[in-house]
Each structure stands twice: as structure tokens, then as C-alpha cells.
Amino acid sequence: MKTCSTPERKTNRLFYLGFSFLMIIAVLVLSGCAVFGHRRVPRDRFNYNEALAESSREQMLMNIIRLRYLEEPVFLAVSSILTQYVYNAGVEAGGIIDLGGNLDTGSTASVGANLNYEERPTITYLPVEGREFSAHLLSAIPAELIFAAAQEGWDVDILMEIGVQRIGAVENMSFGAIPSPGDIELKTQFQRDLDKFKRFQHVMRLLISLSEVEAFEVRIVEKNGIKERHLEFSEKIPEEFQPMLKELRQLLGLSNGNTFRFTDHLTGIKEDEISIQTRSVLAMMSFLSRGVEVPLEHLNEGRVIDYRFLKSGEGSKKNLIPFRVFWSKQRPDKPFAAVKYQDYWFYIANNDINSKRTLGLIIALFRLQAPSTGGVAPILTLPTG
Fold first, then answer.
1. What is the per-residue pLDDT across 49-108, written as a single tens digit (0 to 9) for each?
2. What pLDDT, on a 0 to 100 scale, did the predictor assign at position 51?
3. Is residue 360, in this structure, part of any structural domain at all?
4. Which residues span the domain enclosing 181?
5. Do 287 and 275 have their domain in common?
6. Structure pTM?
7. Residue ending a domain, choose from 229, 247, 279
8. 38 torsion bin: left (phi>0), alpha (psi -120 to 50), beta (else)
9. In terms of domains, do 222 and 307 share one?
10. What string of DSSP letters covers 219-276?
11. How many domains does the chain have?
12. For the segment 159-174, what is each residue's pLDDT rounded down to a tens digit?
């Protein structure tokens, strides 16, 4: 007996095959949702990391600008970052099968899948303040920290220039925004400050040049259980560097000896001692604030002190301080760091290597000096339920 397939049976068979195919696709799509979570971790981890780095630069830049405008700095720490991912998925399927009745529509099928993704970040900020923090912010950084950082490859020139107030008989520029009080006019005070700064920079250049030929080294000497740092000059250095060494000794006010113990005293210094005074982080930030350029209207209104004398020559755009911040009415294109303050954008140019190095250094010193309190370090918790 011969069996023939009717058109209706072929249609129904095709319907079931198509419907099953669509259902398999929907299941595969939804099963893929279960593995979306771990794929988000690498991307979001580095996104949050970059956001934290950028906000740290901007926060430090903002506080330096505040000091330029004679305002107090304010710091906020990211205490925690809690991010939750929510996935809602579903499948919808339906169909009509014509079994030869009164339906005129034929056999139809429909299937659908939907996926909704939602991210719910919770970020906790913690104000960094209190007696302990203020003490760290106002206390001079240990001289040992500067020596250790220099030995680890930090930028010695910038580190000494912004972190040291005095070495031997040579004093650096004042770090305060307002000149020290006195009966002389501001222009004279500014000029004296500028002369100090240029002399200090010259000493730094001598130190760096002589260190490259190993004319001296800093040694740690332990006496009675106490570690001391000594500056020791070599007895044999190239003849062409002898005049530089002689000049350095004269500027620092050193005797004819070869070994000198570092001390933080200003008076009663012995012949075998050399005084070194460091700055606090707040003092360094105040010093760097002199490198912030401000709109002319703010100068004319007397909002800030005019530090035009910091330009190295008339008409020159080079700033003697290793840190320069520009201003603009519009947001600059691709800056290294930019913040909006009093209706103006203040920014560090991306090709300004010295300013970038200096900002990174002051951020690192701030972190080293800041007290370690529970919950201050950023914590990333990424549940992907």
C-alpha cells in the first residue's frame, strides 16, 4: 500500500523543524548569558583603575590650584567600589498549526529571546582629615626618604628642587604664597626669593654633575645603634671636575674635610656636619602653586599674587619652577590632567614632561606621608550575580 504525503503534513513537518531550530538558538543565546560575568571583570577592573588614577591626578591638581588662590586643600579618598551586575533573560515562543480545520492562516511560529543588562556601582568616599593626617601633611618629610627615593631611581633633580628647603649654607625659594613680612617692598622680596632659587638650582646642577663622576656618595654609618647618613667626598676625581667640587664646597660652606654628617640643625653646626632641611608635603604643594598661571582678570581683581618674576627672562615662556599649569576658557584637547575652577579650565599639557613628572612625584610623596587608615585603599568587589 502506497502512502502519500499531503501538503498539510509537509507544512506541519517544516513548522516543527523551524520551531525547534529557533528554540535551540534561543537556548544558546540565553546560556551565553551565564558566562557574561567573568568577561566583565578584566574590562571593568582596568576601567576603574584608570578612573582612580585620573581622579588622583585631578584632585592633586585642584588642590594645588586652590593653594594658588589662597584656599585650603581638601582631599577625598575612595574607600570602596562595589559593583553589581544584573542580567535579566527570558524566552518567548508561540505558534499556530493548521490541521485542516477552518483556519486560513496556515502554520506559523514565533520565538524570541531578551537580555537586559544593568550595572549598579556603589562608590564610597572618605574625607581625609583629622589630627593625624594634618600632622603628616604639615611635617617635613624625613631626609632619609629623599635619599632612599633618589637611590631607587626617582627624579633626583625634581625631588631635591621641590622637597629640600636648605642644604648647607644654600637656601631654596620660600614655599609660602605670601612673602615673609618685613619693611621692604614686595618687588625686593620677590627678587631676593628669585636669587635664592637660582642659586639653589645651580647647587643642584653641581651635585648632579659631580655624582655622575662619583665625586661623592651618601653612606649609612651606625654608631651606638643609631644609623646616620654621611656625605663623603672621593679623594680622587677627574681633574676637570676639581673646580666644580671647589665651588660646591664654597657654596655649601664646608670645611676641608671629606666626610660630613647630615643634621637638621641650623645653629651650632660643627665642622664635620652639613645641615639639610626638608619640606612638608603641604609646603611642596604651596611651592608648586607658584607655577599655576592665572587669568589676567583674576590678577587685576587681586584674587591672587602676581608671580611674573618666575619667568626666566623677559618675554620668555619658560617657567623656572618644574611645574606649569595653563588656563583656558574651553576644555583643552587631550590634556594630561584638567580641572574646572572659577569658570576656567586649568590643565597640564600632555607634552609637558617636567610637569607630569612633578605631579606624579608629589602624588607619590602624599601617599607615603598620608596615614594608613582602614578602608582608605580602594577595594574593588565585583559580584556578577
1. 888 889 999 999 999 999 999 999 988 887 777 777 666 655 555 555 454 555 455 555
2. 84
3. yes
4. 166-279
5. no
6. 0.74
7. 279
8. alpha
9. no
10. EEEEETTEEEEEEEE-S---GGGHHHHHHHHHHHT--S-SEEEEE--SSS--TTEEEE
11. 3
12. 888 999 999 999 998 8
